Amino acid sequence: MVTGVVDYKAGNLKSIENALKNLNADFIISDDPEKLENCDKLIFPGVGEASSAMRSLSKYGLDQFLKEYVKKGNPLLGICLGAQIILSWSEEGEIACLNIIDGKVQLFDKNMGLKIPQIGWNAVRYAKSHYLFKDIPDNSSFYFVHSYYPNVKKEFTIGECEYGITFTSAISRDNVCAVQFHPEKSGRHGLKLMNNFLKGE
Amino acid sequence: MLFKRIVVCLDVRDGKTTKGIKFKGNVDIGDPVEMAEKYYHAGADELVLYDITASSENRGIMMDIVEKVAEKISLPFTVGGGIGSIEDIKKVLRVGADKVSINSQAVKNPSLIEEGASLFGRQCIVLGMDALADSAMPSGYRVVINGGRTPTELDALEWAKQAEKLGAGEIVLNSIDTDGIKQGYEINLTSLVSSNVGIPVVASGGGGKPEHLSEVFLKGKADAALVASMVHYGEYSIKEIKDYLYKCKIPVRLDW
Predict the structure, then answer these.
(1) Model-level pTM?
(2) Which of A48, B35, B98, B101 could form a disulfide with B121 if both were Cys (CB 3.0 to 4.6 A apart)?
(3) If 0-12 CB within 10 Å is exposed, 13-18 middle and 19+ buried, where does residue A99 land?
(4) What ipTM describes this predicted complex?
(5) How far apart are CA B28 and CA B48, in angstroms?
(6) Interface with chain A: mutation pick from B33, B47, B73, B74, highest number of A CBs within 10 Å
(7) Residue-wise pLDDT tens digits, A134-153
């Protein structure tokens, strides 16, 4: 079973690569839809700005590919910016995103006296049980770095956090799941979550 | 709830971790890769590897260390020291660091922060600032560079605000007055900067016992605190510090 890591030049993939190596995963990292097509599941990471990420996805033909890939029922794990881009719309750059899951990406409210970006460890409270969380205790901490957060319907929320407001930090709809935090940087809980994704339901 | 972070700082010189007092009299205290692994398992929330190598020919050693650390630990870490160009930032990030801390070079060339943030995202551009109490400055603090040796004409608070505007995602604020003497962080400076910028502030310089951390979180309004000598010599473990902070009702990560 091969896992593909989608490389669309949005941020560094070194930590994802290191984490997958530590988990002894069989994986490829590629920007080529033809190569990714043959993978059993995909990790869709990303760090940076949403509108330039969308441009980059379209340049590699990855936007259409990703929509079709998940339509076929293949598992996908979005991470950080990847968890935002799969939604319908982002306030960051005011752009339409992949619309794989209905929802929008919003900026934390500066007027609440919050430090933005949110940087550091936050506890994720489970809203639903999900195979990603298997053998990871509820309210475990994960590492976050972000200024924008996913705003999705309750039915797609599997994990939540507090940062001034309650925001969705883990999302799932059918075969697609996504986390706003960085599992690849979140110690043993993060590695466990990635391993859960690799193993599947 | 977002936890207050304990960031362990490893000063690296010629491939070895070292510790000095007020930037002088450094002694080697161990292998940085082994120490990074040790602190990862001991509950550090983040690490900083600070390259204090004087000569440029040893920069390569630092890159090897960064790469090895990235392979061994699943924890965010920052690399600082000698970052002077976009190429330097790229190199460090490529081998697996999450952030770069830019200090003297940002003062000399502020566009480095701006350009770095637009190319790599503001989350990986950290402003490192060394400040010295100076009543001649509007905020009462002067920015100093080159490891504390060279005073600048910059006011510490103004520079922090400017760096935020330029695109820095975080500030590591080091007080030269309190660094290495373990008598507590510079609370006034930390609180002044942290309450006047919208980005996280990591307090640095002076941490000697758990009470100092509770003070800098509660009174200093720091988002994170850097520790070095108080943990390097086995005086306190990260767990002891966190247990104390937890008792003080400061939110800390206990499930590493």
Answers:
(1) 0.96
(2) A48
(3) middle
(4) 0.95
(5) 17
(6) B74
(7) 999 999 999 999 999 999 99
